[in-house]
Amino acid sequence: MFFAILFYLAFAIFIAGVAYKIYDYARTPAPLSIPTTPAPITKGGVAFRMFREVLFFESLFKGNLWIWLFGWLFHMALFLVLIRHLRYFTEPVWGWVAFLQPFGMYAGFAMAAGLAGLWGRRFLVERIRYISTPSDHLMLALLLLIALSGLGIKFLMHTDIIAVKVFFLGLMMFDIQPLPSHIGLYVHLLLVALLMIIFPFSKLLHAPGVFFSPTRNQTDNPREVRHLAPWAAQIEKN
Amino acid sequence: MADQAFKIPEYREYPTIPALVPGSMAHSKPYIANEKVQADMGFPGKLVDNWEEKAIAKFGELLGKYRSLKVFMDSCVHCGACTDKCHYFISTGDPKNMPVARQDLMRSVYRRYFTLPGKLFPKLVGARDLTKDVLDEWYSYFWQCSECRRCSVFCPYGIDTAEVTMAARHIMDTVGHSQKYCNEIIVKLNKIGNNLGLPGPALENTLEGLEEDVKEESGVDVKYPLNVKGAEVLLVTPSADFFAEPHIESLIGYGKVFHAAGISWTLSSYASEAGNFGLFNGSYEHMRQVAIRVRDAALELGVKRIVVGECGHAWRVAYAFWNTLTGLGAGAKDPFAIELQNQLDPRYMQPSHICEFTWDLIQQGRLKFDKEANDHRIITFHDSCNVARASRMGNYPGGQFEIPRNVIKAVANNYVEMAPDTICESTFCCGGGGGVLTDDLIELRVKGAFPRMEALQQVVDANGVNYMATICAICKAQFTKVLPYYNFDMRLVGGVHQLVSTAIRLGDEQ
Q1: Is B415 helix (H, G, I), strand (E, B) or coil?
Q2: pLDDT tens digit string along B355-391?
Q3: Biggest alpha carbon–alpha carbon distance for chain B
Q4: What residues of A are in contact with residue B425 (Cβ under 8 Å)?
């Protein structure tokens, strides 16, 4: 029952928080054309730039290969792991999810390795040690514990995964079912709920943020198109 | 240069990243603007009593006005990709000159006043109250950023420290804690029409003198017209072009291009400045005030085209902002802008960079050159930061890199590139951009030039380079001043149109 309430709450905070942030970013005007050039001059070009940025971390690749390696490994592994977890929320399991299942299983290790690499840098590289705040460390600890507890449940101390699935399918139907009593599972779910709760208040906002970054998502067209913000138009009237 | 009180960085044998030297540049502070300048700017004369409250209110206002600021405050994950990208960090090792740390000076305040975790657990997320110490840090380190955008190239979220710096400077302006140099210049421009405070008659004299000089040197009557109604082209150029060396050599070059192509042109005394220091302080209103003079001059003179001279930030404002600020371009609906759109020639991009203009004429075969005239020069090209990363030339991305180089190669035979990680989108700022080109920041300027000097030394040693071409008034002034500190001849730097000027055939030689 505790976990049922916790997950409803966490999910509500996550969705409402992120939705509010996206609304907030969207409503805030971008009063000047500031793409980092050379920038695409068509909308299609911008879509392709964003695609490369989000899928391959192109700028980071240019900036620092080590951070790119660990960061990309972590994010892509996380993506596969999330897809794999769809099996606990769908019945019957979609074919492509089932296909990706084995990859997702081992992606858990890659995810942990990427996180460990990123965390190691926070201790070993002087510059990055300097800029790291306690929350940067805790965030990595949280994600790493989620990965390790998940791997633990899968490979070391199995839980009744069928019952877990019944629990989550039940949640989705507002029909609360018992969750197996399993310490590894409790830890895993508790941390995931915590992650969802802090998401809209933390640097994890980089996920929606990247799509709203004017230096990346603007078309390089200032000679053809005005970028007049409503508040700037007000100045013109005075 | 043995008398300066600071140490010039030593060239590195291998491309190493410096160890941190905390606080090594904490003493760097530009002079504060005096009350008279502040009054002319519409800012408080000195730091107001309730500055903290006012600063936070302004911060909140800017967060609502600029999506860039809001997204950049939230998105940084402290990954560290930018930490070794800033020329001021590379040369000083001061950790607060790492772009992320510079942003964090402001982000820490953002988290404290505008986010829940920062209100509840400030220590945990690195949030700080805006104390006088923090304000002093802002003043020191936001005046150690040249808004060159090099960090933004490498940030996975495209966070541009220049946007953060501009916001911080604007907040400091509104509480009366302003830098003298930039605000004095904006006041001069608003009163007289250019950053140097050259009044109309002085300009006229200078241009007449120029005509005589060119006549003497080439035997040709090249005109440098001022305030000529009905000319086809209005040239707006940085005012340094009117008298500073080597800037003036490029102005001579522009005049020769117009002459050889047979295109009538004029300068304007009212809009005798391309530079726009409103950009540096992040003040939309001031930037617009400066830009609107160009629109007014274009309307008054009835020109068909607007061309901008060699200037980096000026070209950024002209290319990326003029249309938005004043409707100079396409799409604006107020009566002045519509009048201007009807007046301007739709066949040309408005505004055009002088390099676009010259390259266009070269491609049409309307200019002829004696390339050998430049054979005594071995040339390299320094991409100016704001041209490279905040603007474009031509109708394709990257034209801002190719077109100036095309012009150089069309007028000269010996051309060499500097190291690839120091040119084009990865170019280093000259060290004097973004409002720090003042003698009270000379230490910062000398140190900031270091990565460029290092790359220049390599091509000087390997290829005998003796001319570094650039298309920015600030770059030219900064290098002229700073080159001697690195044991170079100050005449090593010059404009692209200085090269054009040397080689161009004026067509009516006697």
Answers
A1: strand
A2: 999 999 999 999 999 999 999 999 999 999 999 999 9
A3: 81
A4: 36-38
* Residue B331 pLDDT grade (very low, low, confident, very high; cuts 50, 70, 90): confident
* Per-residue pLDDT at B3: 54
Pick from A37, A57, A213: CB nearest B397: A37
Check if the beta carbon of residue B478 is closer than 8 Å to that of residue B384.
Answer: no
Question: Cα separations (Å) of A206 from A77, B168, B239?
Answer: 18, 22, 42
∠ at Cα A136 (A132, A140), nearest 5°? 130
Mean pLDDT of B253-276: 97
pLDDT tens readout for residues B190-202 = 999 898 888 999 9
- Following DSSP, what letter does each residue of B118-159 receive, concatenated? HHH-HHHHT-----HHHHHHHHHHTTS-----HHHHH-TT--
Q: What would the pLDDT profile of B41-59 be if each residue is shown by its tens digit?
A: 999 999 999 999 999 999 9
**Which pLDDT score, from 0 to 100, does residue B508 have?**
59
Q: Do A213 and B79 touch (CB under 8 A)?
A: no
What is the residue-averaged pLDDT of chain B?
95
Alpha carbon of B189: minimum distance to chain A alpha carbons (Å): 20
First to last CA, chain A: 60
Q: What are residue B226's DSSP bridge partners? A: B267
Say how far apart CA B150 and CA B429 lie, in whole Å.
8
Q: pLDDT exceeding 90 applies to what percent of chain B? A: 90
Rounded to whole angstroms, the Cα distance separating B352 from A226 reads: 17
Q: What is the ipTM of this complex?
A: 0.96
- Check B154 against A36: CB less than 8 A apart: no
Are A214 and B68 inside 8 Å of each other by CB? yes
By the 8 A CB rule, do B495 and B476 touch?
yes
Work out the average pLDDT over A218-227: 94
Q: Would the CB atoms of A215 and B68 count as touching at under 8 Å?
A: yes
Residue B509 has pLDDT above 60, yes or no: no
Q: How far apart are CA B465 and CA B460, in angstroms?
A: 4
Q: Is a pLDDT exceeding 60 seen at residue A94?
A: yes
Q: In B332-482, which ranges are E strands?
A: 352-353, 379-381, 467-470
A41-219: which CATH number, 3.40.50.150, 1.20.950.20, 3.40.50.2020, 1.10.10.10? 1.20.950.20
| Long-range contacts, stretch A172-177, CB < 8 angstroms, 24+ apart | A172/A89, A176/A1, A176/A4
Distance from CA of B344 to the nearest CA of A (A): 13
Sign of the dihedral defined by the CA atoms of residues B85, B88, B92, B96, in that order: negative
C-beta separation of B381 from B417 below 8 A: yes
Sheet with B352-353, side-by-side order of all strands: B265-266, B233-236, B305-308, B352-353
Give me the residue spans of the domains in chain B: 35-178, 187-503
Contacts of residue A62 in chain B, CB cutoff 8 Å? Answer: 153-154
Contacts of A198 in chain B (CB under 8 A): 117
Q: Give the closest of A38, A60, A213 to B398, CB-based.
A: A38
Cross-chain Cβ contact B324/A32 below 8 Å: yes
Who among A36, A37, A227 is closest to B324 (CB)? A227
What architecture is the B35-178 domain classified under in CATH?
Orthogonal Bundle (1.10)
A·B CB contacts under 8 A: 225
**Distance from C-alpha of B23 to C-alpha of B388, rounded to nearest angstrom:** 31
